[in-house]
Every structure is written in structure tokens, then in C-alpha cells.
Amino acid sequence: KVVAVIMVGGPTKGTRFRPLSFNTPKPLFPLAGQPMVQHPISACKRIPNLVQIFLIGFHEERDFALYVSSISNELKMPVRYLKEDKPHGSAGGLYYFRNIIMEDNPSHIFLLNCDVCCSFPLTDMLEAHKRYGGMGTVLVIKVSAESANQFGELVADPITKELLHYTEKPETFVSDLINCGVYIFTPHILTAIQEVSMHREGQGHIAANIRHLSSFETLQSPTSRALPLDFVRLDQDILSPFAGKKQLYTYETMDFWEQIKTPGMALKCSGLYLAQFRFTSSHLLAGGDGTKSASIVGDVFVHPSAKVHPTAKIGPNVSISANVRVGAGVRLISCIILDDVEVQENAVVINSIVGWKSSIGKWSRVQADGDYNAKLGITILGEAVIVEDEVVVINSIVLPNKTLNLSVQDEIIL
Ligand code: GDD
Prior knowledge:
- It contains eight helices and 31 strands.
- The chain has about 425 residues and is α/β, with parallel strands linked by helices.
């Protein structure tokens, strides 16, 4: 049997996702019309012998209750939200709930970060892991040397694929092979986490005893100093020390992979998932029945409850959520339109995310250059923003509940 655990963090994480995470936890923000966390959940569902999926985080229980019950019904697979009383780190959370996770006595545990976007080749990873042996296998990918330092950089044996060396977000370049935040482990991982925490406790005692004698701080690694005993990070505290000990292996993906820390990357990843739907769930893409002759360009998702005027032109990379109304002559390109938005006649939206219940007036334009990594590279309207008729909003972020009656460019409207 196999179980899967998806780490969903909590409200103190994901702050770069504001203002879109004010009312919706980042893992539930829709990409390609589905909550971010649903993409890894759907991938887990395809693993043979998977018996349960756990989401571990420190968001309020009520934020996830409705979602986990509906997705459990839909997939006919138990999906449970386990709430930590405080953050335990990316490995500590797993250990904290070890008894629940081991309930079914699984032989393997998948562990996934919720904020990565990829094709999740989980079954292939499991096969590879069984060939390698050891405690775990990490999904890895080659990225450009300039971008590698935002991630865990690693060195793997080209033949055996063993993880030989691991450094989390190093200041000087180590390798362009990086950690994708997708893992498979045997239950031995739980013992490894326990050891890290016990070792730290030991260090704490030594430190306390010699505190008055010398500068004890030099005895501890600078990163683990002052961390609570039960706070264990998967990367620094497990992958680094276990590298080169024939316990950890790597599986390289040649497919797409991105990390979703900002709204700009959410828009990019929404497009990647829409493109993937061509192969996995083409019934979810618009282009025929549901949209009643509105003209569709490329990959587009339109929620069945949305009303799109037949003279609107939509796509590529557009995702339209529930109860959205799109008027006559509207043009939408590369955008996410959230629930209950109204886009009035002849308005244009390009490279933007339009927040829940917002309204865009006639002949208005909401747009940006589409540089997904720049702070103002996409325009974001928070919840319930009103853009009046004939107003132009370019490369800007507008906080919730604002009304714009004048055009703005390169601004953050507080
Ligand atoms: N439940 C819970 N509790 N989840 C947590 C906690 C915690 O205390 N801390 C982090 N997480 C979750 C986050 O929500 C995210 O899904 C994942 O664990 C990793 O988050 P971070 O520890 O903040 O690391 P990161 O995202 O900056 O980088 C990690 O992922 C990259 C791939 O996306 C590292 O492992 C990098 O090496 C890796 O490249």
C-alpha cells in the first residue's frame, strides 16, 4: 500500500502571494480552473495501490473542510486535512502525524510540496525508487545556472543516480540540478526525522552545559541553532546529511516544472496545466458546446456556470471561474478571472488576474507586459475591485475593494 502527503504550509507562508491569499489560502487558489493542490492530488490518484491522501498544514481547519470532503467524494479516495498546532517544518509535519500516516501500514510514502507545478511522474518515480533501493528518491530537474540558487542544488551520480551532495539555496553555485519538492520515501524517513530531532536535543544539552565556558554557538550549525526540537526541515536537516550515504537517489524529469510563489507564476502555471489538459483531460477545455460560439483561441477553461457572450474572443491561457459574466466584444488573453467577476462590453484583459466579485467597465483595459517574474509584470485586481468605464490599468496591483475611476500605470494601489 502507498499513501501520499501534500505539504500545504499555513497563513505565515505564501506571503508573496498577496493580495490573492487574503481570503483564500494559496493552496486553494485556482489554476486552470482547479485549486492549486488538486493538480498533485489528481496525479496521486493515478498511483497504483494508493489508499489515502493527507494534506498537512497550519491553515484553519474550516478553510479546507469543504474542499477535502468534496474532492474525497469526487475521487472516491479519502483525502484528509491534518492541522498542525504550529509549523513543524517540511519534515517535522510528517513526523508529527506519523501515527495517522502509518495507519494503513504503507510500504511507501509520497511527499509533495503543494506549490510546485509539474507533470508529477509519480508512478515512474516509484518504479525507479524500487530499482535504486534506499530510503528515498527525489524528483530533480536541470534549470538555468542563474536561477538554480532559488532552490536546493544537488549533485547526483550520473550512473547510479545516488544523491551525492545537497545544498539548500546556496550563495555560490553548486549545480544546475535542483530539487523539485516531490519525493518518495520508505517509512524509514520517520526514523531519520526522529534522529535529527534527538541529535538536536543532545546538542542543546551540550550547549547548555558549556554556555558559561566558551562561545558555544560555534558548535551548532548556524541554520539549526535556535530551532525548536520538533521543527525539522526536509532539505537542510534530512537531504543534506543523508546525501552520499546510499540512502537517497534522484529521478530526473524532462517535462515541465515550475515553483508557484507569486501571482505571476500562478498565471504562468495555469497556462502549463491548461496545456497539459490537452493530453490528460481534454473534456475540461473550452472550444465547442459550453461556450456557445464565443471564439476560443488555444487552451481555455470556462466554468459551466459562467456566461460568455458569443461575440467575445478568449484565449490563449484563459481560465474563467464560476458565475463570471463576459459581455459582448470582450477580448481576454492570458488571464485568470475569478468567481463572480463581471467583464462588461468591449473591455480587454491581458496578462492579468482579476479578483473575486470585481467588475471591469465598458471599453476598459486591464493589462500588463506579462513578465511573470517581475513584481509588476502582471496586473492583479484584488477582491471586489471596480474599474469604471474607459479606465486603463497597466502593470499594477490593486488591493481589495478599491474603485478606479482614473487610469493608472506601474502602481500599487493601497
Ligand atoms: N505543513 C507544513 N508545515 N508545511 C510546511 C511547513 C510547515 O511547517 N514549512 C514548509 N511547508 C511546506 C510549504 O507549504 C511548501 O509546500 C513546502 O513545505 C516547502 O516549503 P519551504 O520549506 O518554504 O521551502 P521552499 O518552497 O522555499 O523550497 C523547497 O522546495 C523547492 C521546490 O519547490 C526546498 O525543498 C527547495 O530545495 C526546493 O527546490
